[in-house]
Amino acid sequence: MAAHNIRGKTIHSALHLTTAIRMPYQPLSESMLNTLRSQLRNCQIVIIDEIPMVTQPMLEYIHGRLVQVQDDGSLTENLWSKFQKWELTEVVRQKDTTFIDLLNYVRKRKKSTPFSPLHLATLRSRCVKAPDDNIIRIYPTNKQTSAYNYKMLQTTKNPIITITAVDTIATRIGDRILTAPLKTVKSQLPPEIHLSVGARVILTFNVDVENGLSNGARGTVTNIDSSKHFHGLPTFVHVKFDDVSIGSKYQIGFPYAESLDVPIHFQSEMLPSRSIMRHQYPL
User: Fold this and answer.
1) Which of 132, 144, 190, 192 shows the greatest Cβ crowding within 10 Å of its Cβ?
2) Alpha helix locations (H) across the chain?
3) Contacts for 66 with CB less than 8 Å, ≥ 6 apart
4) What are phi and psi of 100, to 5 degrees?
5) Strand 200-202 to strand 192-195: parallel, antiparallel, or no bridges (unpaired)?
């Protein structure tokens, strides 16, 4: 969402990177490279926000993509060797020294180390009662998150639909569908989701960053179109986003849909370390 708000792009979408960065560097195919060159033909400066969040392998991929795009040898040296590291030691986001001390303690402490009475008192002084059930809640485990989400689904009073991901593996005779989606692999697309009309949802996958359909966009499910299926997956899930500008080029009129509804199609992602493609809704 940060990229959409400033009319920018994420590193992944701008340079055609996957979520699973593998070393050594894997160059783009010629067809994808031509597309990227066309997109960056007028680019002269690349500005990266939150650079501390970018890992060394990611930096090498950024460098590799720019070398491929330039294709004249001018970027053959390691650009990152020209940068100098400066470590910032002053905390500027917080002015409360007690709270700063607590944050540093939480960051460095071991799980077995108890909190001091002062730290506990400071934490409890920050606790507030949730004003309503529509605010975003953050839980320490996926299990707790799923339990609360299902509880909120039940408040919609509409039928709850379970959508199971479709995992396929490429074989010599075509794609073979696995009997059940893998549950022990890391993916932005979950093996199973529960939805209903009226459910509050958030995008978990960058579908079209330039149009606002990016990780973090929030909205409400208005319809689940199951007229056609891809191995059990509905054709579309229609979402009305809180920011009506999100997905504007996809807002089309269906007989049962409002004009601001955005049809979300299932997305596909290659699972890391396996030759398996997952198909699921990024909600």
Assistant:
1) 190
2) 2-5, 11-15, 30-39, 56-70, 97-108, 117-125, 142-154
3) 46, 75, 79
4) -60, -45
5) unpaired
